[in-house]
Amino acid sequence: MKKIDTNVSLAGIALKNPVMTASGACGYGLELVPFFDLSRLGALVVKGLSVRPRPGNPPPRIVETCGGMLNAIGLENIGLEAFVVETLPRLREHRAVVLVNILGESQEEYGTLVERLSREEDIHGFEVNVSCPNVQRGGITFGSDPDMLEPLVRFLRDKTERPLIIKLSPNVTDIVDMARRAEAGGADALTLINTIRGMSVDAESRRPDLATVVGGLSGPAIKPVALRMVWEVASQVRIPVIGAGGIVSAEDAVEFLISGASALQVGTANFRNPNACIEIIEGIEAYLDRHGMNSVGELIGSLEVAQTAAS
Amino acid sequence: MPLTSQPAYNLCLPVLWNREIVPEIFHLALEEPRLAAVARPGQFMMLSVPRSMDPLLPRPFAVFNAEGSRIEILYKKVGKGTTLLAQMRAGDVLRVLGPLGNGFSPPDRSVEALVLAGGIGIASVHFLLVHLLKGGGAAPTLLYGVRSLEELVPLEPLEKSGLLLHIATEDGKRGVKGRVSDLLSTILERGKGLSRADTEAFVCGPLPMLKAVARQMTTLGIKSQFSLESRMACGYGVCQGCVIPFKDQKEPKRILYRKVCADGPVFPAEDICWEAIR
Known about the structure:
The structure holds two protein chains of two kinds.
Chain A: E1 8-10, E2 13-15, E3 19-21, E4 43-49, E5 62-65, E6 68-71, H1 79-92, E7 98-102, H2 107-117, E8 125-129, E9 133-134, E10 140-141, H3 146-157, E11 164-167, H4 175-184, E12 189-192, E13 196-199, E14 201-202, E15 207-208, E16 214-218, H5 223-234, E17 241-244, H6 250-258, E18 263-266, H7 269-272, H8 276-290
Parallel strand pairs in A: 3-4, 3-18, 4-7, 7-8, 8-11, 11-12, 12-17, 17-18
Antiparallel strand pairs in A: 1-2, 5-6, 6-16, 9-10, 13-16, 14-15
Helix pairs in contact in A: 3-4, 6-8
Chain B: E1 9-22, E2 25-31, H1 33-38, E3 44-48, E4 59-62, E5 65-67, E6 70-76, H2 80-86, E7 93-100, E8 112-118, H3 122-135, E9 141-146, H4 156-160, E10 164-169, E11 176-177, H5 180-189, E12 199-204, H6 207-220, E13 223-227, E14 243-247, E15 255-259, E16 266-268
């Protein structure tokens, strides 16, 4: 196979390929070390970090669904202090591009995380999880109200020079509006999508399958929704879009690139196969070779839509 | 898995055999010397069928045995995943992730091992029994309970190697009529002296059995290790889905969550918050 250029420059970060691990599906990366060299990834997005450690929700936290799974993990994480002191030094050894996903229940919490982590080396950027309830505003999630989202992004923009990626929730009426507002607030890139709110019931026991009743749906079942949102948003913002949602194969990844994504995240697929990301990277290279293309750039946004197609 | 240098493999392996040995219970063997060499009693593997995305997630199976280049599981057909697995034939390929989990801590040679297995829980303790019988220490005792005689997995090779076997069947067709906890009570009544210092228990079975045996072990003051199960998506510590509640030794009112896949599946009984597991 001739040399294929999989490099992507995104929000000022040089990615050797467009494939990232999705936050929440790779822990802090160390769990993947037995399976492959982390530096082969385009980027590693670690589990969402809050200021204080969070224990997460009581079990049952997960349930398989048709073509996917629901999770209600509850944003369990070790907290900022433990991450900086214990985990980051170990993660550095593997020389991956690391993006830290951050979460908070108030603007101040997000701000604390960005300020503290901006003082650390080897953190290439922040991915902001806006699907958290804003407890100061009655629990409405930041990412579901454009008038909360844009100020949050602006607030964080002032606190760091590092790339700010906003991970959008699909559980909104108009994702294009959310995307535009995040861009207006100063986001460098967007990740679409986070999980879709869903539910599962056990007919025999007449109980919900999750302790929290409602959880987030991920996996192949959500791909058509994610793909649609990526396509709609990519044409309406200037900043790059990172596509996430049900990518389990190189073919899925290519579909997102064609639809306008500049990079991809792979989540649930890692549960089935820890080497999924590596296989997808290699599969993208094989696809480009097969189609006589030299670089990933030729694919991005190359969807051919007939003029008569509905918009 | 614990973030140490424990080896773990992600491989597509050929099935050597997949035999229904009693109704609904299957014995499946895979060929892989590297895995067989490092697997320890009480560990498990995540299995999936590469050619099918339905079901999406892999399923956890205890290492039933590992010998030479062969690694074996014993499983019961209970749902979508195991039904698909039951259809596999020799030569079919399975994706295997393992060995995973902490496994049992082996007892000192001077200690008498008391192993308690309920139903398909026999799958999780079998490899431990093989090890104990090869180890040359005191012969282990197995208290094995099933609902009906037809579910009883034959254990002749272990008996021939010196296993002290006691059976309980809920239908009363063999051994003591009742459950494993009844069997334990009966054995105690019959005068088998179980000395706290010399005995360690290793337990696996359905949750009601684990709870009942845990109470008995506390009363008897016997140190015990329990192999737990939980719904799993990944099995290697990244999804955080398989947690169960534990007592926080430092703050008794606080509940901690630990991953059954990476911190377990084997836990000492006294740490487990039984009331909070359903």
